[in-house]
Amino acid sequence: MLTDAVRLCSKSDYLFLYAERHTGTSKAGFTNTFYGCLRKRDYMKSPDKQVMRESIWKKMKMAGVERFPYAWGRIPNFEGAERAASRLGTLDIFKNARTVFVAPDSPQTPVRELVLRQGKTLIMPTPRLRSGFLQVNPVKGTEAKASTIRGALTQGMSLPEDNIPAVDLVVQGAVAVDLMGGRIGKGGGYGDREIQILRTNGKIPASPIVVTVHDMQVVDWVPQDAWDFTVDSIITPTRVLMTITREEVSKYISYILRHHPPPSISESGFVPLNEVTRMVRKKLGVGGQVVQSVADSDSKGRFEISHEKIRAVYGHSYPVSIDLNPADIHVLYHGTTEKAAARILREGLNPKGRQKVHLSPTIEVAHEVGKRHCEVPVLLKVDAKKALENGVSIQKASNIVYVADHIPPQYISRIEG
After folding, report:
1. Predicted local distance difference test score (pLDDT) of residue 188
2. What's the CA angle centered on 105, arms 103 and 110, to 5 degrees?
3. Is the C or the N end of the chain the one with fewer CB within 10 Å?
4. Domain ranges (residues) in the chain
């Protein structure tokens, strides 16, 4: 029997997460599958998440949309759960799935029943993973009973985690979700562990993950931790929402600030944050907290927020004037195509569609940038030290992007091999 375990190492500040398989009656009969570790202080319930949970539970109760066993402290059951399941059933990702993993929570009962009525194989984790995973095969006339926890335990077959069949679709519940795919559960971490077990055992290499929730549970933004999984689609009683990625949001913010800013843009490239938020919300449906989070955490240092205004630091085609620090590195690199490399070695590096030439601090970064243009980019080396000494202006835009108005050809050479 597979049971879930979270054990503390007595001599450390870490939680070790693993599943424990009972293969005998003595202590020696337990073997462990390691899933990772977290700092104890990070694993405790996030205050921000708990505030959001309690807000959703309270709103659902006040609106009269919760169902038995009611919302508080749970993945909330809701009025319209059957309609959400039916809506999921119209999607190709459901129609084409042969094996479907569905959470054991009450609002997903209609989904589990639909899976069985459609002749599909149901994989279900037992509550809190106490008894591991179950496989329930469709048997005509028993679908309603088998979709309940008690019925699944009676009619289903217990599965070791490494014997779970490949899963074509994952259906989870949630307390709250956002359009970036962020999800909050009830706080026990079981949904995240279920997904981690499936991924660790290679059961969902590219399978879509969806949630069925009430419309009231779809919010502007949910706080996320590093171990939280994200969802691909949100199914409610009234609509199907495809989630978007942080990269999509980042690209649209870049599009606004670099190329098509509103008239309020300043000479230094700043635009009121609330104005950019309105534009992003209109286009992508996400709010200010998402815009702030994406800008603050951008790994390429694209954005700067100051005094309720935001700007792109580099990459503009729209004319702006931004003061940057001088380059602090002796050698820079540029990845490009074979044809462009020949021209650059003759004429130097000139901006193409932007105000500035972009340079990279390492060969690896330049190679990745160059791959946007061709499969095997040519790598060029720029003698930044000599160029700076001779009065060529090169500036540091971020830790991975340096910019210049022009790099003359005498400072550029090709990296062979």
Report:
1. 84
2. 85
3. C
4. 2-43, 47-242, 246-312, 325-414
Q: Which two tokens stand for residue 256?
A: 């606004």
- Assign 46 a pLDDT band (cuts: 50, 70, 90): low
Can you tell me the distance from the alpha carbon of 227 to that of 46, in angstroms, rounded to the nearest whole number? Answer: 13
* φ, ψ for residue 347, nearest 5 deg: -110, -15
Kindly report the CATH number that applies to the domain delimited by 325-414.
3.20.170.30
Q: Are 316 and 343 in contact (CB under 8 A)?
A: no
- CATH class for the region spanning 47-242: alpha beta
- In tens, the pLDDT along 192-248 reads 888 999 999 899 988 999 999 999 999 988 888 878 888 999 999 999 999 998 899
Average pLDDT over residues 92-106: 96
Query: What mean pLDDT value characterizes the chain?
Result: 87
CATH architecture of residue range(s) 246-312? Orthogonal Bundle (1.10)
Beta pairing, strands 303-306 & 309-312: antiparallel
In this prediction, residue 39 has a pLDDT band, given cuts at 50, 70 and 90, of very low
The DSSP string of 204-268 is: -SS--EEEE--GGGEES-----TT----SEEE-SS-EEE---HHHHHHHHHIIIIIS--TT--TT
Q: Do domains 47-242 and 325-414 have the same CATH topology?
A: no
